[in-house]
Predict the structure.
Amino acid sequence: MLPRAEIAKALSGAIQLAKFDKAGLSAFGHTGEAAKRSFFAAVIVAPMFLLWIATHGIDTAIDVPLPSELTFAFLSYVCGWLIFPILMWHVSEKLGCRAQFFHFLAAYNWAAVIQNGLFMAMDVIFVSIGAPEGARGLFGLILLVYVLLYAWFVAKSALDLPAGPACLVVALDMMASVLWESFTNNMSTSG
């Protein structure tokens, strides 16, 4: 468990970055330890993930017991937090920004709390008011564009990259997420 002051500082920095204020980067360390500690963000996001499962269910084979479904979902969640950093560690060398990797990872992980919080808040609001699918889709698309811009800003600022390579970083994250979700969905629905 991280000290509350450290969590508050990191979330404050992530919120500042969400406002496209580069000064938010000062909330994050530059060491491997800072990057490692930033994975506490996954603990903060976990209740949102559980709420998502509770409200939307898990798409699995019919004969899979609930404890197995939840165990698989948990393992998929944990691995999902690790795939992009592992890929990015290798890509950062190719992009010439390996020296900024730990600072970037700390900022990117904490930014994920804000991103997930925004999507969860939108989902809860739309479900509670019974918003039509069209409205959900439109506002979901708008929020997705904002989150992608936010991630791009964090990558560009923390890795000190030009706009194009920062786009590649975000595209790598999106591609890894989509492929991992597709893989885990196929695994969970194969009987």
Observations:
- Residues 4-189 form one domain.
